[in-house]
Design a protein that fits this description.
about 550 residues; alpha/beta; Glucose Oxidase, domain 1; Enzyme I, Chain A, domain 2; TIM Barrel; 3 domains; 8-stranded mixed sheet; 8-stranded parallel beta barrel; 16 strands
Length: about 550
């Protein structure tokens, strides 16, 4: 029996035999092109179109976060720069398969060298390349193996197209040797509620049929477990299954302190599924889906219909809608500047909306109309707000147009530093931990070379949350968390200890967070928060909170 460490996703545990992913397709032949360049080019474009269409259809079937990931892969397949490189290689005498392999591999090397987030995108690009080559060969693309019995899937990494459509009746858990907490394998496993451990040292040595325990909570894979561990693991699995079958209760700490658990959603179609998983409302509804891929802003009527569809699912429940958050990695031709050198620090979020106020007025008008037709408790917030003056602008406009509860997102450190002033204007504040971490640590979320800084456990980030929590408590107003940090069960407890009054997350994380909250009193959560705040680094903060929890 031995332990292989990695990064756990969620708090799940699984026990079963290993089944490894098949190896990738062999490298194409280096034989020279045999036939016209035009014919080879046409074959590549036909294969690319077929792969992009397949990825898009898989995304539509999967829905949610998986759909966005697979649609991004479909765009990768059709990237003009890559296709130009393929054409250049074919024109130089390479056969079609080899040209695709080499062009994609060259760009993969660039991404891999960047490391972190961008390095993890290299695996996605490799999967696209494999699928195109398989189409050219007329063979099936490598994928998840078939099995008549449940298994633990072990792979170097898992393609988003495979992760999105895993048969959860057969796949007990995922174990990968590559990837990290921001890899698409981790993101999709979290969204689908799959027990997973990524970046496992020694995963390559696991063999088919070998029995393993996959303990995501501890971040370890245990090989060849002894009878005592097997018994203990089976008991944990049974307890988790029993807990899942129990009636969903409101989120609360062990002493009865209520902590409403809300869902992060990006489309009204995902609302019913979130309710089924125990969402007590919505803490972040992203409205970008209405605006992306459009040359103009949608009409008030088109927006109203979408908002009615969402709000109708949550009668009497809080639904927090974020005003359009365009800019940075979500540019819109009709709203954001196209030539900014650093768009993450440019005119994005409320800055862009304020510059094009008609777009913001239309959105708020549509939300008010939808609110009048439904029975949800609508809250509306502005993204990328820097200070009390911007807060006052948004809240004043929202109230002018009929919004009853208006607040702002805390993503910029300056807003946390001015929290007392902000709460004089806003009805509530919601903390976007993803961007707050990015701006606090001066590390672009999309830049792989600084991916190690993207950790909301960093004490600097936690101190800003603590300032917001204290100011909200003094003002008697809500402080929500709607970033990915809330989906980490242990960190969720710490955030409550820092003053968070609600937590919002991907729906699949609700059960684990609800269970973790129930193990701690408010005073214990505050003790864990104090320990994390005193730590010198993100890793030390997590360790300190864990030790405080054990004590």
């Amino acid at each position: 029996m031995s332990e292989l460490p990695g990064t756990g996703v969620g708090r799940g545990v699984a026990l079963g035999p290993v089944l490894r992913m098949p190896e990738p397709l062999g490298a194409p032949s280096s034989a020279p092109l045999d036939g016209p360049v035009e014919a080879a080019d046409a074959a590549v474009h036909e294969a690319v179109a077929a792969v992009a269409d397949d990825l898009t259809k898989r995304g539509a079937l999967a829905g949610g976060d998986a759909q966005a990931v697979l649609e991004a892969q479909a765009l990768m397949a059709q990237d003009p720069t890559l296709l130009d490189d393929v054409h250049t290689r074919i024109s130089g005498g390479a056969n079609a398969e080899r040209a695709v392999h080499d062009a994609f591999a060259a760009f993969q090397d660039i991404l891999a060298a960047m490391g972190g987030y961008m390095g993890e995108r290299a695996a996605d690009l490799g999967d696209v390349s494999q699928r195109i080559i398989a189409k050219l060969r007329g063979v099936p693309a490598p994928g998840v193996p078939d099995s008549d019995t449940p298994f633990v899937l072990v792979a170097r990494d898992l393609a988003p197209a495979d992760t999105a459509l895993l048969d959860l009746d057969k796949v007990l858990a995922l174990v990968t040797s590559d990837g990290g907490p921001t890899s698409h394998t981790a993101i999709l496993a979290r969204a689908k509620g799959i027990t997973a451990i990524v970046g496992v040292e020694g995963a390559a040595d696991l063999v088919d049929g070998q029995t393993v325990v996959v303990d995501a909570a501890a971040g370890v894979v245990v090989t060849d477990p002894d009878p005592d561990l097997v018994t203990a693991t089976e008991a944990r699995i049974a307890e988790r299954l029993a807990a899942a079958d129990r009636p969903v209760t409101p989120g609360a700490l062990a002493d009865g302190t209520l902590v409403p658990l809300l869902a992060n959603l990006g489309n009204p179609a995902d609302a019913a599924g979130a309710v089924a998983l125990g969402a007590e409302g919505v803490g972040l509804f992203r409205t970008e889906f209405l605006f992306l891929d459009s040359p103009t802003a949608p009409t008030v009527e088109a927006q109203r219909q979408a908002y009615v569809q969402l709000l109708s699912v949550f009668p009497g429940k809080k639904v927090v809608v974020r005003a359009l958050d365009a800019g940075a990695d979500k540019p819109l031709s009709f709203l954001t500047d196209q030539d900014e050198e650093n768009p993450a620090l440019g005119r994005r979020g409320l800055r862009a909306l304020r510059h094009h106020e008609a777009v913001l007025r239309d959105q708020l008008t549509a939300l008010v109309q939808a609110d009048a037709e439904t029975e949800a408790d609508l809250w509306v917030m502005a993204p990328m707000v820097a200070d009390a003056e911007e807060t006052a602008y948004f809240v004043s406009l929202a109230r002018e147009l009929g919004v009853r509860t208006a607040g702002v997102m805390a993503e910029v450190p300056s807003l946390a530093l001015l929290a007392e002033q902000v709460f004089q204007q806003a009805d509530f504040v919601s903390v976007g931990t993803n961007d707050l971490t990015q701006y606090t640590l001066a590390a672009d979320r999309l830049l792989g070379s600084v991916a190690s800084y993207q950790d909301p456990w960093h004490p600097a980030v936690l101190r800003l949350v603590a300032q917001l929590g204290a100011a909200g408590r003094d003002a008697g107003k809500a402080v929500g968390i709607c970033g990915e940090a809330a989906a980490d069960p242990l960190l969720a407890v710490v955030l409550v200890g820092l003053g968070a009054t609600t937590l919002s997350m991907t729906p699949a994380a609700l059960a684990d967070v609800r269970a973790e909250l129930g193990q701690h009193t408010l005073e214990q959560a505050r003790e864990m928060a104090r320990a994390a705040l005193a730590a010198p680094s993100a890793a030390a903060a997590r360790a300190a909170a864990t030790s405080a929890h054990v004590v």
